[in-house]
User: Which sequence fits this backbone?
């Protein structure tokens, strides 16, 4: 169990560092702050970074059995519920943006405007706030008043005194992710048809958009599987308590942390414009010099290999 905690902390530190670099890159360049693609990308970076940080803090507190005030626990749970939904919604919006850009290129400029972008962001956050409002209502109005002043080992299970309350929350999450997965699947099918009909000039960009949508679908599938995990964990609990604990921490890393850590790798590092600027900041503004240095070294090594005399 200690090993799982160490692995989790290492993963969190690495990907928070990557996310911070990407957030810095996004904020420094005005071209990124005014482009719909990168604005939607930032809507995955900010929530995912906050969610990873808060979830990691909550897990460490649970591991060491540190009790905190119930109201603070409620606030953390509400924030986590909000961030859990808003990031996948941003992925869906990014897939729709790719669908419009590839399948309706002539209308893309008219659809992707600052006004429609702001409306899209507002709708995303409003939809994401439904489950947090439900969690807040259940926590503050259905729980006995004496518990509101207590100190608890924070977990989402602490907020629900009846089994149906957690069942409603889980059902809402599953409905959300099934609808989002259906939208992503729709965009994938449409872009795949466009890729088959595209000319050789547009084939490369269309196939790249197709791969991006497919990777986003994989992310959403991992996020969806985290809501099946509690049922599997409950079955394992009746078999072996140690296996249950190890399985729960493994599920947290694979189905909770992993989808949040994939966004920077999928969209940030694969995007040519963003990755070039990011590498420039990583090398403190000397990426071109470092890149040319490596290229010159590789060129010399190839020349030396070709001109090396044959030894008999």
Assistant:
């Amino acid at each position: 169990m200690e090993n799982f905690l160490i692995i989790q902390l290492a993963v969190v530190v690495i990907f928070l560092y990557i996310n911070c670099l990407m957030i810095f890159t996004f904020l420094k360049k005005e071209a990124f702050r005014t482009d719909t693609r990168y604005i939607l990308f930032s809507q995955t970076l900010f929530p995912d970074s906050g969610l990873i940080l808060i979830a990691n803090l909550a897990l460490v507190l649970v591991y060491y059995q540190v009790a905190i005030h119930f109201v603070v626990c409620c606030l953390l749970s509400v924030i986590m519920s909000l961030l859990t939904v808003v990031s996948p919604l941003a992925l869906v919006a990014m897939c729709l943006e790719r669908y419009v850009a590839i399948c309706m290129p002539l209308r893309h400029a008219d659809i992707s405007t600052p006004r429609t972008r702001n409306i899209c962001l507002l709708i995303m956050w409003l939809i994401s706030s439904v489950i947090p409002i439900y969690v807040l209502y259940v926590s503050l109005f259905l729980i006995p008043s004496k518990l509101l002043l207590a100190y608890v080992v924070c977990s989402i299970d602490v907020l629900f005194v009846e089994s149906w309350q957690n069942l409603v929350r889980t059902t809402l999450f599953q409905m959300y992710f099934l609808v989002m997965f259906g939208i992503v699947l729709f965009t994938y099918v449409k872009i795949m048809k466009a890729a088959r009909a595209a000319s050789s000039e547009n084939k490369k960009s269309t196939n790249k958009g197709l791969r991006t949508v497919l990777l986003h679908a994989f992310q959403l599938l991992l996020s969806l599987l985290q809501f099946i995990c509690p049922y599997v964990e409950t079955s394992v609990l009746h078999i072996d308590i140690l296996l249950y604990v190890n399985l729960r921490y493994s599920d947290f890393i694979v189905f909770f942390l992993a989808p949040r850590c994939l966004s920077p790798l999928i969209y940030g590092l694969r995007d040519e414009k963003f990755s070039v600027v990011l590498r420039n900041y990583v090398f403190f503004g000397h990426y071109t010099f470092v890149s040319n240095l490596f290229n010159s070294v590789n060129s010399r090594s190839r020349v030396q290999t070709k001109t090396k005399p044959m030894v008999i």
The CA atoms of residues 123 and 134 lie 18 Å apart. The chain has one domain: 2-286.
